[in-house]
TrEMBL record:
Keywords: Hydrolase. The lineage of its organism: Bacteria, Pseudomonadati, Pseudomonadota, Alphaproteobacteria, Rhodobacterales. This is Tol-pal system-associated acyl-CoA thioesterase. Belongs to the 4-hydroxybenzoyl-CoA thioesterase family. InterPro entries: 4-hydroxybenzoyl-CoA_TE, HotDog_dom_sf, Thioestr_dom, Tol-Pal_acyl-CoA_thioesterase, YbgC/YbaW.
Length: 121
């Protein structure tokens, strides 16, 4: 199942060239990923109270085309693989139907001591 999240590009998201600064795509997909987790019925505040957090273990990104000030973006998140200890997601940033950025993100679950543990999914 693909989850969609929309966000607008604000002036603060852009660089001197007027395009989205490369690191801000990571912020956009982080917001979308948080909403994907929420849509899975996971309360991250309750999870944190149990001493568990999600962390990005690996990220591979392709910047395809630039987003610009005032663009309305859609971030699509879908699960592509899962094991007891890791989750792999594909996240695509689109303007209309045009892909601008694609990332493969591997998530793990960590205890409050920073050690890996089974995913609570």
């Amino acid at each position: 199942m693909t989850h969609s999240f929309t966000c607008r590009v604000y002036y603060e998201d852009t660089d001197l060239a007027g395009i989205v600064y490369y690191a801000n795509y990571l912020k956009f997909i982080e917001r979308a990923r948080s909403e994907w987790v929420r849509a899975q019925g996971i309360d991250q505040v309750a999870l944190k109270a149990q001493g568990l957090v999600f962390a990005v273990r690996r990220l591979v990104a392709d910047y395809l085309k630039p987003a610009r000030f005032d663009d309305l973006l859609t971030i699509e998140t879908s699960e592509t693989a899962r094991s007891p200890a890791r989750l792999v997601l594909t996240q695509t940033v689109l303007r209309d139907t045009t892909p601008l950025f694609v990332a493969e993100v591997t998530l793990v679950c960590l205890t409050d001591k920073g050690t890996p543990t089974r995913l609570p999914l």
